[in-house]
């Protein structure tokens, strides 16, 4: 009986340790950033490509403000990659992600080719050649993944450099990098969209370094709900909406005032501008400081890892001509108020997101059955073992 009790107690301890490890691996705030960021991307794509601006031209200024409010998603995903990626950056994770992208690139392509070929000009130059779908990194369709893929190859070097600097030094580096970026790109450049766009490797690396700083030094929860607790959320909420409104106000400014023109360059509508980065920081710091209920955290952590596939599905080059025109097909015949129209946009964007989640969960089950992640880890070990033999390094295999 004593032996059985000891075994049961040991099993319970092992379970608790596993739960603790899982809790450390997944952060509900980070996963909620992923979920809201992906819904935001879908809503943004509906606003700019959902055939609603034509019939409702009288709402154009309001649509522009909504477009500004939803520009924070790109820099947010870059910062999140730094929050979770400064500790570990295994190439097996990159290989697994690449296989997910390749899976959707090819699967969606052949489904659309078979069942929806007559819906749009399949072989037109806008859709792409059939062989292009085998190379998702080099195609412009998934441009964010292409940039992320290139940056990830250098993460061991970036993370090694981050490990040698302390908090004060890292803060100075971040302020210097972003100061140089905004002065060069937003003030000195005549075309602020020309240099250091979101497709730029350096811009995504800067998001990563900023995220690494937040992940290392700013992930502690606020212990008690004091006045500072509420002031913290109020401060970042004000930062989010004020930066958005200033951008909106300056977007329509057409005067010759020197200072307003300078601020117009800084607060422009590109997603890697000063205002949009402030938006991302505000949302991330708000969501990371919240202490979530265990059951809610489990739900968030379930959808969080699957959320990136919503981008791969809804933004596929063959899906866009089918999805976005059909979301508001008969909208021109209705005379809707802006509030109701906004409600429909957010609701339909959320529905698209969860539909993609169901699809990706099936993909996840298939990959689990085929043991794709284990295969990626095995390939990584073989490659590093082989390179170690070539270089003559006799040290043990290091997980990068």
Give an overview of the whole structure.
- Helices cover 70% and strands 0% of the residues.
- The model is unreliable at 14-24, 120-127 and 396-400 (pLDDT under 50).
- Helix 4 packs across helix 12 (274-289).
- It has helices at residues 2-25, 28-49, 60-69, 73-85, 91-115, 143-152, 155-163, 167-188, 201-217, 227-251, 258-266, 274-289, 294-303, 308-314, 320-327, 338-369, 372-391.
- The chain has 400 residues and is mainly α.
- It contains 17 helices and no strands.
Overall pLDDT level: 79
Strand content: under 5%
**DSSP strand count:** 0
Q: Could you state the order of secondary-structure elements as H and E?
A: HHHHHHHHHHHHHHHHH
What is the CA-atom radius of gyration, in angstroms? 23 Å
What are the low-pLDDT stretches, counting only 5+ consecutive residues below 50? 14-24, 120-127, 396-400
Based on Cα principal axes, name the global outline.
Answer: globular
Structural class: mainly alpha
Q: What about the largest sheet?
A: none
Task: Please work out how many helical segments DSSP would assign.
Answer: 17
In helices, the fraction of residues equals 55-70%
The CA-CA distance between the termini, in Å, is 45 Å
In short:
This protein is mainly alpha-helical and 400 residues long. It is 70% helix and 0% strand.
SSE order and pairing:
Layout: H1 2-25, H2 28-49, H3 60-69, H4 73-85, H5 91-115, H6 143-152, H7 155-163, H8 167-188, H9 201-217, H10 227-251, H11 258-266, H12 274-289, H13 294-303, H14 308-314, H15 320-327, H16 338-369, H17 372-391
Helix pairs in contact: 2-4, 2-12, 2-13, 2-14, 2-16, 3-10, 4-9, 4-12, 5-17, 6-9, 8-9, 8-11, 10-12, 14-16
């Amino acid at each position: 009986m004593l032996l059985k009790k000891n075994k049961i107690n040991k099993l319970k301890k092992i379970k608790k340790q596993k739960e603790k490890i899982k809790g450390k691996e997944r952060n509900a705030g980070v996963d909620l950033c992923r979920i809201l960021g992906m819904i935001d991307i879908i809503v943004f794509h509906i606003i700019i490509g959902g055939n609603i601006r034509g019939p409702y031209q009288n709402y154009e200024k309001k649509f522009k403000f909504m477009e500004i409010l939803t520009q924070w998603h790109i820099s947010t995903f870059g910062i999140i990659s730094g929050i979770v990626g400064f500790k570990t950056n295994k190439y097996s994770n990159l290989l697994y992600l690449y296989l997910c992208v390749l899976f959707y690139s090819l699967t969606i392509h052949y489904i659309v080719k078979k069942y929806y070929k007559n819906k749009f000009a399949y072989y037109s130059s806008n859709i792409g050649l059939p062989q292009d779908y085998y190379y998702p990194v080099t195609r412009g369709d998934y441009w964010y993944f292409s940039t992320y893929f290139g940056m990830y190859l250098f993460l061991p070097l970036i993370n090694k450099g981050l490990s040698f600097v302390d908090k004060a030094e890292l803060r100075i580096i971040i302020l210097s990098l972003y100061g140089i970026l905004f002065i060069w790109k937003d003030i000195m450049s005549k075309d602020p969209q020309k240099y250091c766009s979101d497709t730029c490797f350096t811009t995504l690396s800067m998001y990563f370094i900023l995220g690494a700083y937040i992940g290392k030094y700013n992930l502690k929860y606020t212990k008690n709900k004091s006045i500072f607790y509420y002031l913290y959320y109020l401060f970042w909420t004000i930062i989010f909406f004020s930066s958005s409104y200033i951008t909106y106000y300056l977007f329509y400014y057409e005067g010759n005032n020197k200072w307003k023109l300078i601020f117009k360059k800084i607060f422009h509508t590109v997603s890697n501008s000063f205002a949009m980065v402030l938006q991302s920081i505000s949302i991330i710091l708000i969501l990371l400081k919240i202490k979530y209920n265990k059951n809610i955290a489990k739900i968030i952590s379930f959808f969080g890892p699957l959320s990136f596939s919503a981008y791969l599905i809804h933004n596929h080059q063959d899906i866009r001509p089918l999805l976005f025109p059909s979301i508001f097909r008969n909208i021109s015949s209705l005379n809707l108020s802006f509030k109701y129209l906004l409600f429909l946009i957010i609701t339909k964007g959320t529905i698209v997101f969860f539909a993609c989640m169901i699809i990706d969960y099936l993909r996840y089950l298939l990959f689990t059955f085929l043991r794709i992640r284990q295969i990626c880890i095995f390939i990584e070990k073989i490659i590093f073992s082989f390179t170690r033999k070539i270089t003559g390094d006799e040290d043990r295999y290091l997980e990068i």
